[in-house]
Amino acid sequence: MVKVTRIARCRYGRELLNWLNRACARNVTELTQQDVATYVYQRSVKLTPGTITTMVSALGCFVSYLSSTGQCSIPLPIYIPRPKPIYEIPAYQALTTQEIKSILQSFDLNTSVGKRDYCLARCMTELGLRTDDAARISLDNIDWRHQVLTLDPGKNHRQHRLPIPDLLLEAMVDYVQNGRPSTTGRALFVYHRAPLGQAVTAATVRGVIRRAFVRAGIAGDRHQVHRFRHTMATRLLSSGQTIKSIADVLGHQSYEASNRYTHVDIDNLSDVAMPWPQGDEI
C-alpha cells in the first residue's frame, strides 16, 4: 500500500471516531454498524462519487481492524451500505496545445529548480502521470538507451512501462547533468533545499504545476493538475486510440476508469448525429 493511501485511510478512520465522540457522545468500544452507515450517509451529501468510494473502502478496512483486535463489537465481515456512484463528465475541458505550450514556457531553464520543474511538467503533459507516480520516479526506472520508463507499482499495484518521448528525454538528461544536486539518493526529482537531495512529494509536484498554471494565466481549481491526464486521454481518443490503449497509457486497471477521463469529442459527434425531424415529419 502506497504512503498516500495509508495517510488517507488513517484520516477517514480518525474522522469517524471524532464524529462518534462529538455527535453521539460515545467511544470506539460502543461503535455499531448502524453508526458507520449513518456517518457514511451524512458525509456523502457533500462528497463526490469517487471520494465516497474511497471513504467507504477506507472505513471498511478500519472497522475490520477494530473488530479483529477486539476494540469494537461489530461482527465480521463488515458491510457498509453506500450510495451507488454516478460519475459525471468533468466540467473542465482538456488543455489546448497553446495552453500546454504556455505552461512549459513558464519555467526558467536557467536555474536548476527550473530545470527540475520543467522536467516534471513534461512528465505530466507527455506521459499523463499521476503526481505521486511522477514524484516516485527513480533513476533506476529509466532505460536511457531504449527510452523506456518503468513505473513501480503504485495505485494500481502493478508495474507500468511507458515510452519516453524525445523532448522529455532531453529534459531528463539536461536536469540530471546540469541541475540535479549531487546526492546518494536514487530519486530523479529531489529537493534543492532542505531536505536537500531527498525525493520530492506528490504535494510538491502539485505545487509546481499549480504555480505554472498561474504564470501561464490559465484559470483553474484544485483539480487543474489532473487536467493533464484528461487532456492526454481526450487526445488519444480523438486520434482513434481504443479505450484499452488509453487505459494502458494511463495505468488504469478498468476501462470504466478510462472512460471517465475521456471528454466528448464534439467534432466526431457531429458526424454521427441524426437530423431532428420537422413538425410535419413526426
TrEMBL record:
Pfam families: Phage_integrase (PF00589). The keyword Transferase does not apply. Residues 90-274 form the Tyr recombinase domain. InterPro entries: DNA_brk_join_enz (IPR011010), Integrase-like_cat_sf (IPR013762), Integrase_catalytic (IPR002104), Tyrosine_recombinase_XerCD (IPR050090). One of its GO terms (molecular function) is DNA binding. One of its GO terms (biological process) is DNA integration. It comes from the Bacteria. Keywords: DNA integration, DNA recombination. Gene3D superfamilies: Intergrase catalytic core. PANTHER family: PHAGE INTEGRASE-RELATED (PTHR30349), PROPHAGE INTEGRASE INTD-RELATED (PTHR30349:SF64). This is Tyrosine-type recombinase/integrase. It comes from Vibrio aestuarianus.
